[in-house]
Design a protein that fits this description.
Layout (H helix, E strand, L loop, with lengths): L3 H5 L4 E2 L24 E4 L6 E6 L2 H6 L7 E8 L7 E9 L6 E6 L7 E8 L2 E2 L3 E4 L10 E7 L10 H6 L6 E4 L25 H12 L2 H9 L1 E4 L25 H15 L4 H8 L10 E5 L3 E5 L21 E2 L17 H13 L4 E5 L9 E3 L2 E5 L7 H13 L5 E5 L5 E7 L9 E7 L11 H10 L3 E5 L4 E8 L2 E9 L9 E10 L6 E2 L1
Parallel strand pairs: 2-12, 10-11, 11-12, 14-16, 16-19, 19-21
Antiparallel strand pairs: 1-8, 2-3, 3-6, 4-5, 4-7, 7-8, 7-9, 10-23, 13-14, 15-18, 17-18, 20-21, 20-22, 23-24, 24-25, 25-26
Helix pairs in contact: 4-6, 6-7, 8-9
Fe (ii) ion binds next to loops.
């Protein structure tokens, strides 16, 4: 059993101390811990998983190897004591990729727990735990996952991960805003080093800052993660190759996006194939959207609504970024030529829906799906950065679900920094229209919400397809899928200024197999 203590122990253990012979792990001497960013695993399927770490820049500098490749050993074992090694190898951590290490381990058994660690010189990481998926044709009784998003460093501590890492999960869905490109939070709960993030070096440093958090490291070490990104991994409210609005004027946004995407690869347990064309200068794009089976129980769809989207419309003065817009006065608002996912991804998704025989269809995407009208000074307005700003694209997604008779769609999202739970409607303007699925849009891990609960309560009355909204707590959600139904539990942190904050259960919901009505438990 992997203990909490072994997950959180200092990463700079000496190989000799854990009973490993020095020879064979390289001769690199370290003055400081080379593994300050912890370890992670991710992108699992039924026969493989990605193991990740990255060497600390200060440790590399102190060792005089900043510009050199460094060989890092990885081991994957059936047991926490590493007596039954399942696979091992050496990855050359390259300066051109920020001394990141990605070991894509193949030939593994399905639905199996494994343990892993990295070694370089006399340094060894703590032990991580990971898990492969069941085979696509396997009968599976249960899938339990947590979903999380939006973890601005300076806004609070990652106590949510302190609690998440103790849950019994098959994997974690991270839905975007792993870093923020912003400088210090006001007021700062903790110090954000580095100011505005613009260059590859800036992005690398910001990831290193986030990765230094021990609660985040524990959640990565405890479970494999499935990753998608949102805007802040690049810039607030960017759209495709169009800049958003934050910080100093951007001189070459496509170059900045490219640097940000590279840094994302370097710091996440993601597959090389998704990023290969970007990293070899053959393309400026990354293929993140995907579908993977979790046995016959579930299909997991991971979408990318940032990289291919058309820009937001009808901002005052045609400004970049997002705004609250009077849709009735915006001629292009409903233009069917506008897209959020890009037409290639839309077509792919409809085909995947059509072919899905899974009992649950879990759609992991960035933001709030359901319509959310706001009355501002007597005028109905919508936020133009979310699905509300792309209503024709949303209706096409709804059409894809209806036309393909997609079974039990469950949508997960983030971005809005509040918890929202609602019914997916065939027509959001007609409450009597069919309910075709359920949506759970999560709060943030730390990022502040600008809203007041009274505003959300008004919004629930105004938008009755939503049945729950809460802005008071940062946290995460856990979703438990069985053949009978899906149970979602929303966890809130009592004090975001405390890294070991107590948690509370905000609400619990159930959706029965074959029904879309959400019951409050
Ligand atoms: Fe966010």
């Amino acid at each position: 059993m992997l203990t909490r203590r072994s997950l959180l122990q200092g990463a700079f253990a000496s190989a000799a101390l854990v009973g490993l012979a020095k020879q064979g792990w390289g001769q690199q001497a370290w003055q400081t811990n080379p593994f300050t960013m912890g370890i992670a695993s991710g992108s699992p399927d039924s026969s493989s998983v990605v193991l990740w770490t990255r060497l600390d820049p200060q440790a590399l500098e102190a060792a005089g190897v900043t510009d050199k490749a460094v060989d890092v050993v990885w081991q994957l074992a059936h047991d926490e004591g590493f007596t039954k090694i399942a696979a091992k190898g050496i990855v050359s951590a390259q300066p051109a990729l920020g001394h990141s290490v990605h070991a894509e381990v193949n030939g593994l058994e399905p639905a199996r727990q494994y343990f892993y660690r990295f070694l370089v010189g006399e340094a060894v990481t703590s032990v991580g735990r990971t898990r492969t998926f069941p085979r696509a044709d396997a009968a599976v009784d249960r899938l339990r996952l947590s979903y999380a998003s939006c973890q601005r460093w300076g806004d609070g501590y990652y106590s949510a991960y302190h609690h998440m890492s103790k849950e019994d999960l098959d994997f974690v869905f991270f839905l975007g805003d792993y870093i923020y490109e912003y400088p210090a939070s006001i007021p700062p709960i903790r110090e954000t080093t580095g100011g505005w993030v613009n260059t590859l070096q800036d992005y690398r440093a910001r990831y290193a800052l986030h990765k230094s958090d021990l609660n985040l490291q524990a959640a990565h070490a405890a479970f494999p993660w499935m990753m998608i990104w949102d805007d802040h991994e690049v810039q607030n409210d960017y759209a495709g190759e169009i800049q958003g609005r934050s910080g100093a004027a951007v001189t070459d946004f496509p170059a900045r996006r490219l640097a940000a995407y590279q840094a994302y690869y370097e710091n996440m347990p993601v597959r090389r194939a998704s990023f290969d064309k970007l990293l070899t200068s053959q393309s400026k794009q990354v293929r993140l959207f995907d579908r993977i089976a979790y046995g016959r129980l579930a299909n997991l769809f991971t979408l990318d609504d940032r990289q291919y989207r058309d820009r937001q419309v009808c901002n005052a003065d045609n400004a970049f970024g997002s705004g609250m817009v009077e849709a009735d006065k915006c001629e292009v608002w409903k233009d069917p030529k506008r897209t959020l996912l890009g037409f290639e991804q839309e077509t792919w998704l409809k085909n995947e829906f059509a072919g899905s025989k899974a009992q649950w269809n879990i759609i992991a995407q960035q933001t709030l799906f359901g319509q959310r009208a706001s009355d501002i000074k007597g005028t109905e307005k919508f936020w133009n950065d979310g699905w509300d700003g792309y209503t024709a694209a949303r209706q096409r997604m709804i059409g894809s679900i209806v036309d393909t008779k997609l079974t039990n769609p469950i949508m997960l999202g983030g971005d809005v920094h509040d918890n929202w739970v609602g019914h997916i409607k065939a027509d959001y303007n007609d409450l009597a229209s069919a309910t075709i699925g359920a949506e759970f849009c999560g709060t943030s891990i730390t990022t502040k919400s600008g809203a007041k609960q009274a505003q959300l309560n008004q919004s629930l009355v105004r938008n009755p397809h939503f049945i729950f909204a809460n802005t008071e707590y940062r946290g995460y959600g856990t979703v438990d899928f069985t053949q009978k139904g899906v149970t979602t539990t929303l966890k809130g942190m009592k004090d975001i200024t405390d890294p070991k904050s107590d948690s509370l259960t905000l609400a619990k919901f159930f959706v029965a197999n074959g029904k879309s009505d959400i019951q409050t438990l």
